Amino acid sequence: MSADFILGVFAVVYVGMLFGGLPGLALDRTAVALLGAIALLAGGALDARSAWAAVDMPTMSLLFGLMLVSAQLRLSGFYTLLASRMANGLYTPQGLLFLIMLGAAALSAVLVNDIVVLALTPILVEGCIKRGLNPVPYLLGLACAANIGSAATLIGNPQNMLIGQVGGLSFAAFALDCLPPVLAGLLAA
């Protein structure tokens, strides 16, 4: 298999990730990544055994489990209650932003940050509109804080899960080491 083919697949997938899909095709980022993997398999650049070996099952299992917990929290109304209490409280706009960022960072440290953002975004937008606030600064605060907070633990994001699994890292030691830069990042944001 030629390196040009592999680089071509990489370039197409990268463009798809950059734009959220491929022009003219009804594919999102996930489908573009899957299409790239299929192309590598079909083109012979990767065999099925190597592809399967590249998947870290403990990390995938942990990610799946945390997504299930987070989905149950969403279905139970936890995120709706949390966001509505924040948005409907008697807070100044700056106080509301602080609470949103603090809540998003804390939740993202113990749940997968992507799910936290997906669950809170629509409720946050609705709450901001009800209060007559422009939701953009609050959404930016949510996104920044979720990313920062997710760095605090081994279960905050898939990258940390993989690093923890492969490196055999201690959850508590990792959290203690990450706490100072996470707090500094959150204050800076």
Structure characterization notes:
The chain has 2 domains: 3-53, no CATH class; 57-188, no CATH class. It is mostly helical and 189 residues long. Helix 4 runs antiparallel to helix 9, helix 5 (78-88) crosses helix 7 (113-130) and helix 8 (135-150) packs antiparallel against helix 10. The model has no long low-confidence stretch (mean pLDDT 87). The chain has 10 helices and no strands. It is globular, with a radius of gyration of 20 Å.
SSE order and pairing:
Layout: H1 3-19, H2 29-42, H3 48-53, H4 57-76, H5 78-88, H6 93-110, H7 113-130, H8 135-150, H9 158-167, H10 171-188
Radius of gyration: 20 Å
Question: What is the end-to-end distance?
Answer: 46 Å
Largest sheet: none
- Can you give the helix content as a percent range? over 70%
Shape: globular
Low-confidence stretches: none
SSE order, one letter for each helix or strand = HHHHHHHHHH
- Count the beta strands: 0
Give a brief description:
By secondary structure, the chain is mostly helical. The protein has ten helices and no strands.
